[in-house]
Amino acid sequence: MEIDPFIFRLSIFILSIFVGYYVVWSVTPSLHTPLMSVTNAISSVIIVGAIIAALSGTDGIVFTSSSIYGFMAMILAAVNIFGGFLVTQRMLAMYKKKKKDK
Amino acid sequence: MSANVSAILYLISGVLFILALRGLSSPETSRQGNLFGILGMLIAITVTFLSVGNFTVGFIYVLIFLSIGGGIGSFIAYRIPMTSMPELVAGFHSLVGLAAVFVAISAFINPQAFDLGTPENIKLASLIEMSIGATVGAITFSGSVIAFLKLQGIMSGAPITFRGQNLLNALILISIVILTFYLCSTQSSKLFWTLIAASFLIGFLIIIPIGGADMPVVISMLNSYSGWAAAGIGFTLENTALIITGALVGSSGAILSYIMCKGMNRSFFNVILGGFGGNDQTVGSQNKEQKPVKSGNADDAAFLMKNASSIIIVPGYGMAVAQAQHALREMVDALKKNDIKVSYAIHPVAGRMPGHMNVLLAEANVPYDEVFELEEINNDFANADVAFVIGANDVTNPVAKTDPQSPIYGMPVLDVEKCKSVLFVKRSLSPGYAGIDNDLFYKENTLMLFADAKKMTENITKNL
Predict the structure, then answer these.
(1) Model pTM score
(2) ipTM of the prediction
């Protein structure tokens, strides 16, 4: 009997939760704010769905009732991707070690 | 592009996201980690374009909308002051939530585009996944909006409670489950819209009773929800990158919520069902008896500090509000010139989000190896000469260790009172968010400095 592909996705999901668990516990507490902003940015990979939805219109009609939702989702996700990664970069650039000699 | 190739590339982008989080284990590797994250995102977006393969007029619109969103995002990211990070993160969570709702709606209206069947005849599994994605996304959205308004001060940070609140929430949650069930059997679009509306409502209702001081938990929790929403959509779209990311973000937010709850010695449910805040006014007003307090000025503080050999600084949310981090760093520079050892002690729930204080100190150019977490530094207070508490309150209250009656009993606190002398910068004697008096104010070795945190720090620097 063939295994339902859903089971494969479920396996990836469960294993990723465990990966996330161990990876996040190893994040140093002083970087918890950048952790939140970067998780925010990467969860915007939902833009993948938004793009598919936005491009679902046919040649003649770009804006259908469903593609409009796609476009809106795309703007939101794009704000998050650029905003999230940039603000994380900005924060991380500020973390400096003590200068040896002053 | 063949489905197998794109699946592999999505997997790679998921792995890059894991590496992005892995990089955060130390500040040195973190910047590289962020680049991995960006690369992962680039791959995911490019693969999607190639596999849809529709480079017609629609594609131009996609690029336009991408640049609009990207432009707004970049603008915000450059302009936002570091003190507003909690609001920013809450705002961004709401966007992920709403995007998840929109994608789910789009998939419901036009399932062919996602290969999920035809309208009113969507594959059962997809419909369930879609409903979960939409529900969690909607909760994330309305919850984050409330959190944002509370953090921004547009809405009062005080908890809003009413009779039967928990019962109402329970009823709505049950109705969401029932609606999902009927939606799956009838595929009715009316039920789908009702489901989304009910989810928006419950997100709103869950967050309004939670007070300002519990915001670190709320933000972490919404972070987690945004991940689960993404994962739900990932299952619908059968997309590995989204599933991996959703799981990562979901568990990350859950761990942060756990750390925050532990930092307050409260259970997650206690925070969600509205713990302190609702009854604090009564506790605060009972102890109106006047106890003697020693107060001083910048001169006294500078004198004490000049004669110290080691000083520990305890920053809190008040420092963020007064934007005192730069003034504080200047004070510390002056102290260091006098060969005084200075370190910083950060409580896990100091500020409005996890790691809030660390970012502010980093912004003020404080080297991160002078900044310590509670467990690392708590034993050092006994050997330090001066503790300088700036904008923190409840996290220093010794009552948490001594009085089992106190609402914060058992909460881990910084052992500030063990220092030879304590300087406490505060505007007044008013209690903190837990609504209880801080015993530290009345200790023999405490000197209260009643002033705005920034002004006081600047004045001390002048007197050093």
Answers:
(1) 0.89
(2) 0.93
